[in-house]
Amino acid sequence: MTDLSVSVAGVPMKNPLVAVSGCFGFGREYDEYFDISLLGGLCVKGLNVSGRPGNPPPRIAEAPGGCLNSVGLQNPGIEAFLREDLPFLRTKDITVIANIFGGTAEEYAEAARMLGDSADMLEVNISCPNLKCGGVNFASDPKAAAEVTEAVKKVAKVPVCIKLSPNVTDIASVAVACRDAGADALSLINTLLGMRIDIETRRPVLRMNTGGLSGSAIFPVAVRCVWQAAAAAGLPVIGMGGVSSGSDAAEMMIAGASAVGVGTALFGDPAAPVRILRELTEWCGRHGIENVSGLTGSVRAY
Amino acid sequence: MGKRMTGTVRSVARLADGVYDLRVEAGLTNPAPGRFVHLAVPGFPLRRPISLCGCENGVARLVFAVKGGGTAAMAAWRPGDTVDLLGALGNGFPEPDGGAGKTVLVGGGIGLPPLLYYAKTHPDTHCIAGFRSAGHVILAGEFPSLELCTDDGSAGFSSYPHQRLEELLKNREPVARVLACGPEPLLKATAKVCREFGTPCFVSAEERMGCGVGACLVCVCAAGGTYKRVCKDGPVFDAAEWGETV
After folding, report:
1. Do A115 and A78 touch, CB atoms closer than 8 A?
2. Residues of A numbered 240-279 whose beta carbons fall under 8 angstroms of chain B's beta carbons: which are they?
């Protein structure tokens, strides 16, 4: 029997499977399809201080091997989350990772302060491609990424994980800047900026014209980014981006991830995370692996 | 609450150009008209949400239009094929609240299927159905009471369904409430007519959908001054709040 437990920046999880932010709401909906306590962790829908209505629809466009979204961080705000959603999650045996965002470094810090130690970890989204101010701008510049990291770390009462964007030239330098500013962990990748056009109407499919590509199409990009960021920064990484099978999860861990996120795969298979966990467990069993955490960063790179 | 189930295709029939009638045996039990199923199409990352057009003895009837590769693949399904579906999802049309008069169903094009399911399971309905032309008419003969409109006048009345509804209401016909499904301009016009006459109106909204279970916040529409989820808060909305700008 493989020991499936992992630890990310000192935060223990009973297994490495994490539902990623934005695909899983606050856990209630998918709990109707499987017991979410089976998962190691859950990154909640991105939160900011006062909430956001999000972008006008259409917010989704299909793409080969995935989809584009332009949800625009619709959320009810941190107070509503603490009042209405966190109590439900605390009835579950699951590590709660609170995903936060803001328009300025100060707003990020305020979000972290409001959350205090109510979640087990903060995931700081500096990489949403669907926000005009903030978002991906912070993740595309090592200096700005470090600024947000520092501001959050100053007030955070739990470990801080910075969520990075693949839409950068050199992800290693952003990862290192976050580490130097005090980040405890990294999560990556967020979506890749993309676009679809209806050739009959010549209108973009998304109302915001562009959106973030996710799904198995981006998996190789995610593996590459995880490998580069983990190697460069030496921080624990939650690897995500197109994971849709147990072998994908193993590959992500071998590339350098300590835990593995699942998101878009849920749209096809609402029980994808538990299926992937089962497949990963079987794979580990077949390979006589005693501790799944031993996979992390075990790539024999040339 | 929806369930994931494996269904079996019983038949696929072409109703009109690009419109198909799919029967899937899946064990759904008495889903309310207005609810939908979310079908997986092999080879496509996203499921396709299709309103129920009927459900008898566990066989769901799904009438859909081919809009792209996914629905084209569905049209090519053959009896015996297995179908992975989530259902039934969403909220159906509310039950009559005892107001005097008929429930008038206002439908346009591929919006007719859920209205037919309602008409077949409820008494005292009258349907006003609009299509682009005679060649696009589907399901009309199956309604107990129906008046037909076409945009080009090639069949039935040469007008839009909401204009016929307005006539009914002007003539003080007893209309308890209106249920509408179809293109957004028709829904908006129908909601406006109902507002003017103080007639309760419920619309079935459509939006490009992701998870189908309420988690991903992709399929939203403006309602009550905020964005609500078509899959979980809808697809049926009270027209009094639907479309209210965010």
Report:
1. yes
2. 264, 266-268, 270-271
